[in-house]
Sequence to fold (441 residues):
Amino acid sequence: MKFIIHTFGCQMNKLDSELVAEALTAAGWKMTADENEADAILYNTCSVRDNAEQRVLARIMQLKPVKKQRPGLVIGLMGCFAQRMGAKLFDQLPHLDLVCGTRKFPQIAALLESARSGPVVAIEEETLVAPGTLDAHGRSLHDGMQAYISIMRGCNNFCTYCIVPYVRGREESRPEDAIVTEARTLVEKGAKEIILLGQNVDAYGKDINSSLAKLLYRVHEEVEGIVRIRFVTSHPRDITEDLVRAMNDLPKVANYLHMPAQSGSTRMLKAMNRGYTREEYDRKLEMVYRLAPTALIASDFIVGFPTETDAEFQTSVELVRQARFQNSFVFKYSPRPGTVAERTMPDDVPEEVKLARNHELLAAQEEVKIKRTEELIDSVQEILVEGVSPRNAEKMLGRTASNLICVYDRTVHADNEIGTLQRIRVDRATPLTLFGSKVEA
Ligand code: 5AD
Ligand code: SF4
Fold:
């Protein structure tokens, strides 16, 4: 029996797909890349924004004639979207066989088996899980030089636009020891860079008397051979001085913070229930740059949130310039069913205004990024070397802490540099690539 998984969405989803693949392989299934020979076609999808859902619906619709021809085929929809919709999905997709929510992945093999003889819905009615159940769901994904470890799940923040707390449940941290052990195993298997993942990673440990700062020290100290450590995504309110100090002081921890602002306007932030004002966000930024002067910071923004005026939108543009973000992800507001914003606020910013704001904010961010990247000329960057540049066999390619690509001349000994950190002086920069030369130790 063969299966194929299509993943739509974030890193968390990719990890979940990996877990499903592992569970199915353990149960005797084989993974395939060819839909034509698959006995099960699975979609793992995100609900954070509307477009992933729409794309998946369209894809599954297209499978209707395929299912007619191959009645034994099992079609399954998993993840946040499945959790959110439950059995209602069968109304839109009568040829669907399986709906599997975010906390039911470990049972996937048994669920697929029963879906062969009739439609199956497996979702958690109550996403508030009992403490201590998480570790069975904890997982890692090894992808070339990088490996991801899910260190916590869920979110307690209930930003008014966001579906995550509804589909992923409350915050639950995995034990420090389990994470350290997993990091060791991944490094033994060849991972160089460990990425600690959570919807809200800087809230790590609140429920188990620990903290992300403490965890960073432990991974840094106790995992031999680890080259670089990162963590995403942080909520600005939970970024503490201790965390920034740990990031700055621990040489293997990348000085990079994803610290989504969402808006530059206090009125919008309040309507979004973000838990901070613009002034508080500014103070947080100031603290980060003071304690970690080389830190690169990235943000997310939502444009066209209900009742957002032009003037309020401009505060986001101005924040991008003032904060000097290395990068921003910009999203047009889309009402998510069941959230406070969807239930109580009009989606009253016209689509073309949302689109124009999206472009304007991205353009401002691009300008800032070009300037910031040019400022790196003459600086020395630590890069994790990935290999020979695919574009130019005379160059080696690696990534800076902020994930910028950096290339430098390949020497006869360059193969030994793969998987290590190298110090590179930047000679030239384009928006996408840094060009440099090696600084001899
Ligand atoms: N509409 C638009 N963007 C959203 N995000 C989350 N929910 C929504 C929504 N309903 C964005 C936020 C978040 C990122 C992961 O997705 O910016 O930080
Ligand atoms: Fe969603 Fe807000 Fe939680 Fe982020 S912090 S996952 S935006 S509720």
Notes: Confidence is low (pLDDT under 50) at residues 126-139.
